[in-house]
Amino acid sequence: MPSVVYAEHDGVEIGLDYYLPPGNGKCPILLWFHGGGLLMGSRKAAWSHLRNAPDKHGLCMVTADYRLAPQTRMPGIMRDISACLAYLRSSAFASETGGRVDQSRVIVSGGSAGGWLALLLGSGVGFEASGLEAPEPPLGVCAIYPITDITAPFWTTPQHRAAVAEYLDPNAQETSWCPPDSPRMQMYSYMLQEAIEQDLVIGDCGVPASAYSIAPGIVSSKFKLPPTYIVHGTQSEDVVRAADGAGLDVTFDVLTGIDHLYDKDPKYEMDNMYRWIWKLLQRA
Predict the structure, then answer these.
(1) What domain count does the chain have?
(2) Is residue 51 one of the residues assigned to a domain?
(3) What CATH number does residue 98 fall under?
(4) Which pLDDT value is given to residue 79?
(5) Residue 48 falls inside a structural domain
(6) What pLDDT is stored for residue 172 in this prediction?
(7) Which residues are in the Alpha/beta hydrolase fold-3 domain (predicted)?
(8) DSSP labels for the chain?
């Protein structure tokens, strides 16, 4: 698949990969952000249903990196995801793809922390607090078992340091990805064990963690979501209740007896999500 650097900050290149469907027609764009608590991971960890989306569902599939915490705090990550969406709408990406993409139809997705980023992009929550202008929202959002509020007890109640110590230093070299065999991949478990997600992602950036909480933002009536599909996740229920109360178009797909990251298993083809995407595209 082709790779592109969509942004660069302080010498750190931030990339994306894209996959085009066969044929010559213009296709909608599905942008996906990886999970990992915003601490680890890479765009290369796209599950099979995402890799199959171009051929099976006729979508331009884009998987994107962003700079990782704690070397980059939340405002910097917000800057990255906004830059990614802007790039997908740019003449540069149109040229890169040979005019094959319909840039008016971008849907943003992600799993876990990536689902949180998708919801932030869709709603505009957190951008003003980060000193940024909120981008024009995407056509829709697909949030897969998303984080929605790191002030919740799950993230603030403690659950071995040596393996991840070098990655906990906020002054260490910034990075936008890590390989799957890196010790950094232990950071998520360590973060849960020590309940330090806020310290790592927010730190001393001067913005309260609550500024990035999705449901309170919607309840405030300051923020809205475009049509949104959410699957799994108990925190997501708060977002769905808030969206229902605001009269927003949110579909909540509750699956029982499955684990976090369940769609990593190739047997889960996420057909409900892709059906929802095409219903939305047909209305647009």
Answers:
(1) 1
(2) yes
(3) 3.40.50.1820
(4) 98
(5) yes
(6) 83
(7) 30-157
(8) --EEEEEEETTEEEEEEEEPPSSSS-EEEEEEE--STTTS--TT---HHHHTHHHHH--EEEEE--PPTTTS-HHHHHHHHHHHHHHHTSHHHHHHTTT-EEEEEEEEEEETHHHHHHHHHHH-TTTTTTT-PPPPPPSEEEEES----TTSHHHHS---HHHHGGGS-TTSPP-S---TTSGGGGHHHHHHHHT-HHHHHTTTSS--GGGG-HHHHHHTTS----SEEEES-STHHHHHHHHHHTT--EEEE---S--TTGGGSTT---HHHHHHHHHHHHH-
Token code pair at residue 216? 């309170």
Q: Please report, as a single letter, which amino acid is at residue 220.
A: S
Would residue 20 count as lying in a domain?
yes
Quote the pLDDT of residue 159.
Answer: 53
- What's the full length of the chain, in residues? 284
Residue 87 CA: distances (Å) to CA of 5, 24, 83, 159: 10, 21, 6, 39
d(CA 121, CA 123): 6
The residue range of the domain holding 88 is: 3-279
pLDDT at res. 164: 60
